[in-house]
Design a protein that fits this description.
The two termini are about 25 Å apart. Helix 3 packs antiparallel against helix 7 and helix 10 runs antiparallel to helix 16. The protein is an all-alpha fold. It is built from 16 helices and no strands. It folds into 2 domains: about 425 residues, MFS general substrate transporter like domains (Growth Hormone, Chain: A, Up-down Bundle), CATH 1.20.1250.20; about 50 residues. The chain is globular. It comes from Nonomuraea coxensis DSM 45129.
Length: about 500
């Protein structure tokens, strides 16, 4: 196919938009908090609900693409995402913003598995496929890097909603380019979409995620947590059982007999769980602790994301030297070291001392996610590419949502426990978050405002240290898991590799 690299470009552009959308949100949170008066709980929901909706629907949408055509689903999703972005930009209250983020999640769920399954069906030669997945992963990492810069430029001149409007022209490019160059592909033997399975997967995922989110706030013994958690696990168990009874299941459970598939899914989930808090952590640290502008904060994070793109491109060549398990483990270990360094950050920062850790961590992200994504696609049949990509993306989004919820709660809880309010300062808003402290300080006399902000910055720094240290330990453990789980997986996985080897 002579235009397959153009197909990759369209898939990468759509992926770039989705990762950009996540990062600009984190950068906009401080301004959004002040303008809409969002509480810390609402802020977590604004960040999390997009991932919850996405994770709950990915399996269904991936299968839908296999049935109605991946190109068709991608174009429908692009149009819906652009529309939902405009609604998000003009949301007047936290509640309506949360609702608009749900719509974005639904639209995003149609795009993510479509892009990866299109890559899988266009690139059939193993070496080219790995390289294409590396470029695709690199563009996703580049979106995380460019997002803060674009967001910073917009926030320096416009209101917070402008960071969502940037999605509209990009989605127009995806629509026009997709119509012109993308081939249509689908599973010609797919049966009807099993609606009970779709409902079970969505309800089970959302219930489990909600339970874990509430456990981070209320504790494991809270009645709501126990009921929702048990119900979600039961629904997912019923979903898995139903898949073994269907001639055309949403998820072919036999894929999990392939060690490369299962180890890659689990590793991706745990790794993104650990690293998702980094974006939120740095957005607050650079702006509210160091006092940098949104643009400065975005530019500061640019090398890390661009390094991720470099790592994605280099991963294919490195597989031939140290194997798939070695590349993933190396990438995660590099990130563990970077987060260990982040646990030493102070109230003052020498940027050139931070830069090497960001670059090392970024390259490591590119290594790990490129190889894991290629493992998942290579071990699934082409006709089920959408379903396989959906499983991978579900793990990714689920891990991201859980990371923001749980590690974000660790950060907030440590902040609150370390915050010592100055005498005579009423601190309900300040205790909510460091952004709340900034808002409270604006209404105080200069001396009290200065004392409050010093206390808030020190408390936030304590939370950052704990969160970074926990993340470092988790990443190191996942690196070992990847090394063991991917041991013996071939450096080049052929088409329809047998389960014993893949």
């Amino acid at each position: 196919m002579t235009n397959k690299w153009w197909c990759l470009a369209i898939a990468c552009l759509a992926t770039l938009l989705l990762s950009l959308d996540l990062t600009v949100l984190h950068l906009a949170l401080p301004r959004l908090t002040a303008d809409l008066g969002a509480s810390s709980t609402q802020l977590l929901w604004i960040g999390d609900v997009y991932g919850f909706a996405l994770a709950g629907l990915l399996v269904t949408m991936g299968n839908l693409g296999d049935r109605i055509g991946r190109k068709r689903l991608l174009l429908i999703g692009a149009a819906a995402f652009g529309t939902a972005s405009a609604l998000t930009a003009y949301a007047p209250t936290p509640e309506l913003l949360i609702a608009a983020r749900v719509l974005l999640g639904v639209a995003g769920a149609t795009i993510m598995p479509s892009t990866l399954s299109i890559v899988r069906n266009v690139f059939t030669e193993p070496g080219e496929r790995t390289a294409a997945v590396g470029i695709w992963s690199g563009m996703s990492a580049a979106g995380f890097a460019v997002g803060p810069v674009v967001g910073g430029l917009l926030l320096d001149h416009f209101w917070w909603g402008s960071v969502f409007l940037i999605n509209v022209p990009i989605m127009l490019l995806v629509l026009v380019g997709g119509v012109i160059v993308l081939p249509e592909s689908s599973n010609p033997d797919a049966g009807r979409l099993d609606l009970p399975s779709a409902a079970l997967s969505m309800a089970g995922v959302i219930a489990v995620v909600w339970a874990i989110k509430e456990a981070a706030h209320e504790g494991l013994g809270h009645a709501n947590v126990l009921v929702a958690g048990a119900g979600g696990v039961a629904l997912l168990g019923l979903f898995a059982w139903r898949q073994t009874r269907l001639p055309e299941p949403l998820i072919d459970v036999r894929l999990f007999a392939r060690r490369a598939f299962t180890a890659s899914i689990v590793t991706n989930l745990l790794a993104i769980f650990a690293m998702s808090a980094m974006l939120l952590m740095f957005a607050w640290y650079l702006q509210l602790v160091l006092g940098w502008t949104p643009l400065q904060a975005g530019l500061a994070q640019l090398p890390g994301g661009l390094s991720g793109a470099v790592g994605g491109v280099l991963a294919a060549g490195l597989i031939r030297r140290i194997g798939r398990g070695g590349v993933v483990a190396l990438g995660l270990a590099m990130n563990a070291g970077a987060f260990l360094y982040y646990s030493t950050l102070d109230l003052e920062l020498t940027y050139m001392a931070l830069l090497p850790a960001m670059v090392i961590g970024g390259v490591g992200i590119g290594f790990a996610f490129t190889v894991n994504n290629d493992n998942v696609l290579a071990t699934a049949p082409k006709e089920r590419a959408g379903a396989a990509a959906a499983v991978s993306e579900t793990a990714f989004e689920l891990g991201a949502a859980l990371g923001i919820a749980i590690l974000g709660t660790v950060l907030t809880s440590t902040y609150r426990s370390h915050l010592e309010l100055p005498a005579g300062v009423a601190g309900e808003a300040a205790r909510e978050s460091i952004a709340g402290a900034v808002h409270a300080a604006a209404a105080l006399p200069a001396e009290q405002a200065g004392a409050l902000m010093r206390a808030a910055r020190e408390a936030f720094l304590a939370g950052l240290h704990v969160t970074a240290l926990v993340t470092s330990v988790l990443l190191a453990a996942v690196a070992v898991l990847a090394l063991v789980g991917l041991r013996g997986v071939p450096k080049e996985i052929p088409e329809d590799a047998p389960a014993a080897h893949a």
